[in-house]
Amino acid sequence: MTVTAIITAAGSGRRLGHPQPKALVRLHGTPLLQHAARRLVMSGQVDDLVVTAPAGHERAFRTLVPEAIVLTGGATRQESVAAALAALHPEADVVLVHDAARPLASPELVSRVVAAVRAGHRAVVPGLPVTDTITAVDPSAEGATAALGTVPRAGLRAVQTPQGFDRAVLDAAHLAGRDSGTMATDDAGLAEALGEPVWLVPGEESAMKVTTARDLALAGLLLDEGA
Protein backbone atom coordinates (compact mmCIF):
# COMPACT_ATOMS: atom_id res chain seq x y z
CA MET A 1 0.00 0.00 0.00
CA THR A 2 1.17 3.51 -0.81
CA VAL A 3 0.63 5.96 2.05
CA THR A 4 0.10 9.69 1.50
CA ALA A 5 -0.14 12.12 4.39
CA ILE A 6 -2.17 15.30 4.03
CA ILE A 7 -1.11 18.01 6.48
CA THR A 8 -3.82 20.61 7.01
CA ALA A 9 -1.97 23.85 7.65
CA ALA A 10 -4.16 26.63 6.27
CA GLY A 11 -5.34 27.95 9.65
CA SER A 12 -4.60 31.40 11.05
CA GLY A 13 -2.58 32.10 14.19
CA ARG A 14 -5.15 34.53 15.56
CA ARG A 15 -5.98 32.62 18.75
CA LEU A 16 -2.27 32.09 19.30
CA GLY A 17 -1.80 35.85 19.19
CA HIS A 18 0.35 35.70 16.05
CA PRO A 19 -0.18 37.64 12.82
CA GLN A 20 1.24 34.79 10.72
CA PRO A 21 -0.39 31.45 9.91
CA LYS A 22 -0.38 29.00 12.81
CA ALA A 23 1.76 26.49 10.92
CA LEU A 24 4.58 29.06 10.74
CA VAL A 25 4.58 29.78 14.47
CA ARG A 26 7.79 28.47 15.99
CA LEU A 27 8.12 25.88 18.73
CA HIS A 28 11.67 25.87 20.08
CA GLY A 29 12.78 27.70 16.95
CA THR A 30 11.13 25.36 14.44
CA PRO A 31 7.78 26.05 12.71
CA LEU A 32 4.93 23.78 13.76
CA LEU A 33 4.60 22.60 10.16
CA GLN A 34 8.16 21.27 10.10
CA HIS A 35 7.73 19.47 13.42
CA ALA A 36 4.62 17.72 12.09
CA ALA A 37 6.13 16.83 8.70
CA ARG A 38 9.36 15.48 10.18
CA ARG A 39 7.55 13.12 12.55
CA LEU A 40 5.36 11.78 9.76
CA VAL A 41 8.45 11.06 7.67
CA MET A 42 10.36 9.60 10.64
CA SER A 43 7.67 6.95 11.02
CA GLY A 44 8.94 5.29 7.85
CA GLN A 45 5.32 4.78 6.81
CA VAL A 46 4.69 7.81 4.60
CA ASP A 47 5.54 7.79 0.90
CA ASP A 48 4.21 11.23 -0.07
CA LEU A 49 3.27 14.48 1.65
CA VAL A 50 0.62 17.01 0.61
CA VAL A 51 0.33 20.28 2.55
CA THR A 52 -2.53 22.77 2.39
CA ALA A 53 -1.37 26.36 2.88
CA PRO A 54 -3.12 29.70 3.39
CA ALA A 55 -3.37 31.74 0.20
CA GLY A 56 -0.24 33.84 -0.27
CA HIS A 57 2.00 31.63 1.86
CA GLU A 58 2.56 28.75 -0.54
CA ARG A 59 6.18 29.69 -1.31
CA ALA A 60 7.13 29.83 2.37
CA PHE A 61 5.55 26.43 2.95
CA ARG A 62 7.41 24.90 -0.01
CA THR A 63 10.67 26.19 1.46
CA LEU A 64 9.91 24.58 4.82
CA VAL A 65 8.77 21.22 3.38
CA PRO A 66 10.43 20.94 -0.06
CA GLU A 67 9.54 17.25 -0.38
CA ALA A 68 5.81 18.01 -0.19
CA ILE A 69 3.21 19.04 -2.73
CA VAL A 70 1.91 22.37 -1.43
CA LEU A 71 -1.62 23.46 -2.37
CA THR A 72 -3.74 26.47 -1.50
CA GLY A 73 -6.20 25.51 1.23
CA GLY A 74 -9.91 26.25 1.22
CA ALA A 75 -12.08 28.39 3.46
CA THR A 76 -12.62 25.42 5.80
CA ARG A 77 -10.58 22.42 6.86
CA GLN A 78 -13.01 20.19 4.98
CA GLU A 79 -12.49 22.14 1.76
CA SER A 80 -8.72 21.98 2.23
CA VAL A 81 -8.71 18.20 2.62
CA ALA A 82 -10.96 17.82 -0.42
CA ALA A 83 -8.54 19.91 -2.50
CA ALA A 84 -5.64 17.76 -1.33
CA LEU A 85 -7.49 14.54 -2.16
CA ALA A 86 -7.98 15.75 -5.72
CA ALA A 87 -4.20 16.11 -6.06
CA LEU A 88 -3.20 12.67 -4.75
CA HIS A 89 -1.26 10.21 -6.86
CA PRO A 90 -3.62 7.60 -8.35
CA GLU A 91 -1.70 4.80 -6.62
CA ALA A 92 -2.21 6.20 -3.12
CA ASP A 93 -4.13 3.52 -1.19
CA VAL A 94 -3.93 4.80 2.39
CA VAL A 95 -4.42 8.46 3.30
CA LEU A 96 -3.47 10.06 6.59
CA VAL A 97 -4.98 13.42 7.48
CA HIS A 98 -2.95 15.28 10.08
CA ASP A 99 -3.16 18.75 11.60
CA ALA A 100 -0.03 20.88 11.60
CA ALA A 101 -1.46 22.17 14.89
CA ARG A 102 -0.55 18.76 16.42
CA PRO A 103 3.20 19.07 15.85
CA LEU A 104 4.38 16.48 18.38
CA ALA A 105 2.39 13.41 17.31
CA SER A 106 5.04 10.72 17.45
CA PRO A 107 6.29 8.47 14.65
CA GLU A 108 5.02 5.55 16.75
CA LEU A 109 1.49 6.98 16.72
CA VAL A 110 1.67 7.38 12.94
CA SER A 111 2.74 3.74 12.65
CA ARG A 112 -0.15 2.55 14.86
CA VAL A 113 -2.69 4.30 12.67
CA VAL A 114 -1.21 2.99 9.42
CA ALA A 115 -0.97 -0.55 10.81
CA ALA A 116 -4.66 -0.49 11.75
CA VAL A 117 -5.67 0.62 8.25
CA ARG A 118 -3.46 -2.05 6.69
CA ALA A 119 -5.13 -4.61 8.98
CA GLY A 120 -8.45 -3.87 7.26
CA HIS A 121 -9.97 -1.07 9.32
CA ARG A 122 -10.89 1.50 6.68
CA ALA A 123 -11.26 4.51 9.00
CA VAL A 124 -8.95 4.84 12.03
CA VAL A 125 -8.41 7.58 14.59
CA PRO A 126 -6.19 7.90 17.68
CA GLY A 127 -8.06 8.62 20.90
CA LEU A 128 -7.28 9.42 24.53
CA PRO A 129 -9.53 8.60 27.50
CA VAL A 130 -11.45 11.65 28.75
CA THR A 131 -10.46 12.53 32.32
CA ASP A 132 -12.86 15.41 33.05
CA THR A 133 -16.47 14.91 34.09
CA ILE A 134 -18.63 15.69 31.04
CA THR A 135 -22.21 16.95 31.18
CA ALA A 136 -24.69 17.77 28.42
CA VAL A 137 -26.26 21.24 28.10
CA ASP A 138 -28.58 23.10 25.76
CA PRO A 139 -26.15 24.31 23.06
CA SER A 140 -28.21 27.48 22.49
CA ALA A 141 -28.17 28.54 26.16
CA GLU A 142 -26.11 31.50 27.34
CA GLY A 143 -24.79 32.20 30.82
CA ALA A 144 -25.92 29.91 33.65
CA THR A 145 -27.74 26.91 32.25
CA ALA A 146 -29.16 23.66 33.56
CA ALA A 147 -27.12 20.51 33.17
CA LEU A 148 -28.99 17.92 31.14
CA GLY A 149 -27.11 14.98 32.56
CA THR A 150 -23.60 13.68 33.13
CA VAL A 151 -22.18 11.55 30.35
CA PRO A 152 -20.24 8.48 31.60
CA ARG A 153 -16.65 9.25 30.70
CA ALA A 154 -15.45 5.63 30.70
CA GLY A 155 -16.85 5.23 27.20
CA LEU A 156 -15.53 8.54 25.84
CA ARG A 157 -12.35 9.31 23.93
CA ALA A 158 -10.84 12.61 22.79
CA VAL A 159 -10.03 12.18 19.10
CA GLN A 160 -6.65 13.24 17.70
CA THR A 161 -4.76 13.12 14.41
CA PRO A 162 -3.28 11.67 12.27
CA GLN A 163 -6.45 9.94 11.14
CA GLY A 164 -6.03 7.12 8.64
CA PHE A 165 -8.33 5.97 5.85
CA ASP A 166 -8.65 3.65 2.94
CA ARG A 167 -8.41 6.15 0.09
CA ALA A 168 -11.72 5.04 -1.49
CA VAL A 169 -13.57 5.60 1.80
CA LEU A 170 -12.17 9.08 2.30
CA ASP A 171 -12.93 10.07 -1.30
CA ALA A 172 -16.52 8.82 -0.92
CA ALA A 173 -16.97 10.53 2.46
CA HIS A 174 -15.89 13.91 1.11
CA LEU A 175 -18.01 13.55 -2.01
CA ALA A 176 -21.07 12.67 0.05
CA GLY A 177 -20.37 15.52 2.45
CA ARG A 178 -20.11 17.99 -0.41
CA ASP A 179 -23.28 16.77 -2.11
CA SER A 180 -25.33 16.75 1.09
CA GLY A 181 -23.90 19.93 2.58
CA THR A 182 -22.70 17.99 5.62
CA MET A 183 -20.05 19.84 7.63
CA ALA A 184 -17.92 17.84 10.06
CA THR A 185 -15.16 18.86 12.46
CA ASP A 186 -12.90 16.10 11.16
CA ASP A 187 -12.68 13.46 8.46
CA ALA A 188 -13.81 10.67 10.77
CA GLY A 189 -17.10 12.54 11.16
CA LEU A 190 -17.58 12.47 7.40
CA ALA A 191 -16.83 8.76 7.33
CA GLU A 192 -19.37 8.16 10.11
CA ALA A 193 -21.99 10.15 8.17
CA LEU A 194 -21.33 7.80 5.26
CA GLY A 195 -22.03 4.82 7.53
CA GLU A 196 -18.42 3.69 7.72
CA PRO A 197 -17.33 2.23 11.09
CA VAL A 198 -14.53 4.25 12.69
CA TRP A 199 -11.91 2.37 14.72
CA LEU A 200 -9.74 3.78 17.49
CA VAL A 201 -6.13 3.14 18.39
CA PRO A 202 -4.46 4.50 21.55
CA GLY A 203 -3.59 8.17 21.27
CA GLU A 204 -0.94 10.05 23.23
CA GLU A 205 -0.57 13.20 25.28
CA SER A 206 2.10 14.57 22.94
CA ALA A 207 -0.42 14.66 20.06
CA MET A 208 -2.14 17.61 21.76
CA LYS A 209 -3.51 20.41 19.59
CA VAL A 210 -1.87 23.84 19.73
CA THR A 211 -4.61 26.47 19.68
CA THR A 212 -3.66 29.06 22.30
CA ALA A 213 -0.45 30.55 23.68
CA ARG A 214 -0.86 28.30 26.71
CA ASP A 215 -0.97 25.25 24.42
CA LEU A 216 2.23 26.39 22.72
CA ALA A 217 3.95 26.73 26.10
CA LEU A 218 2.78 23.23 27.09
CA ALA A 219 4.06 21.81 23.80
CA GLY A 220 7.42 23.38 24.61
CA LEU A 221 7.47 21.60 27.97
CA LEU A 222 6.60 18.30 26.31
CA LEU A 223 9.44 18.81 23.84
CA ASP A 224 11.82 19.54 26.72
CA GLU A 225 10.74 16.25 28.31
CA GLY A 226 11.60 14.31 25.17
CA ALA A 227 8.28 14.19 23.31
From TrEMBL:
Entries under Pfam families matching the protein: IspD
Pathway(s) annotated for this protein in UniProt: Isoprenoid biosynthesis; isopentenyl diphosphate biosynthesis via DXP pathway; isopentenyl diphosphate from 1-deoxy-D-xylulose 5-phosphate: step 2/6
GO biological process, one term: isopentenyl diphosphate biosynthetic process, methylerythritol 4-phosphate pathway
Feature type site, description Positions MEP for the nucleophilic attack: 153, 209
UniProt keywords, alphabetically: Isoprene biosynthesis, Nucleotidyltransferase, Transferase
Xref: Gene3D superfamilies: Spore Coat Polysaccharide Biosynthesis Protein SpsA, Chain A (3.90.550.10)
UniProt catalytic activity: 2-C-methyl-D-erythritol 4-phosphate + CTP + H(+) = 4-CDP-2-C-methyl-D-erythritol + diphosphate
Listed CDD domains: CDP-ME_synthetase
Residues the UniProt record annotates as site (Transition state stabilizer): 15, 22
Enzyme Commission number(s) of this protein: 2.7.7.60
GO molecular function, one term: 2-C-methyl-D-erythritol 4-phosphate cytidylyltransferase activity
HAMAP family found in the cross-reference section: IspD
Function: Catalyzes the formation of 4-diphosphocytidyl-2-C-methyl-D-erythritol from CTP and 2-C-methyl-D-erythritol 4-phosphate (MEP).
Family affiliation: Belongs to the IspD/TarI cytidylyltransferase family. IspD subfamily.
UniProt name for this protein: 2-C-methyl-D-erythritol 4-phosphate cytidylyltransferase
Native organism: Cellulomonas denverensis
Classification of source organism: Bacteria, Bacillati, Actinomycetota, Actinomycetes, Micrococcales
Gene encoding the protein: ispD
